[in-house]
Design a protein that fits this description.
Layout lengths: L1 H20 L3 H23 L1 H60 L1
Helix pairs in contact: 2-3
């Protein structure tokens, strides 16, 4: 029951917000221009579905290559971070060994 009221409230709020935004002349013009442009594109895609499929494929390939590049960059950064952490661990180990040697020399004297 509460979930139903939530969605009704969300939809009512969106409707009221949309109507309020359309009170502004520039907003009405913008919405009208974008609606006409979108309608024209949809009609063109309906007449030429192969063009729509081609556009989707090109956009998917571009998006996919960007994601792949991002993943490769992330993996490279992780490799560098791992390498730096390994170096820090090695330095830490060397410092511990040097401190042990100093402590051993103090105990011997």
């Amino acid at each position: 029951m509460g979930q139903s009221k939530l969605w009704k409230g969300v939809l009512l709020g969106a409707l009221v917000g949309g109507v309020a935004a359309l009170l502004d002349k520039e907003t009405r013009q913008y919405v009208g221009d974008k609606s006409r442009t979108t309608g024209a594109k949809c009609q063109n895609y309906m007449k030429h579905p192969s063009e729509a499929i081609h556009t989707i494929r090109v956009n998917y390939e571009a998006f996919s290559s960007q994601v792949n590049k991002g993943v490769e960059d992330l993996l490279e950064l992780l490799d560098k971070a791992e390498s730096m952490l390994n170096k820090v661990g090695e330095i830490n180990q060397e410092v511990k060994e040097q401190l042990r040697a100093v402590d051993d020399s103090k105990e011997a004297s």
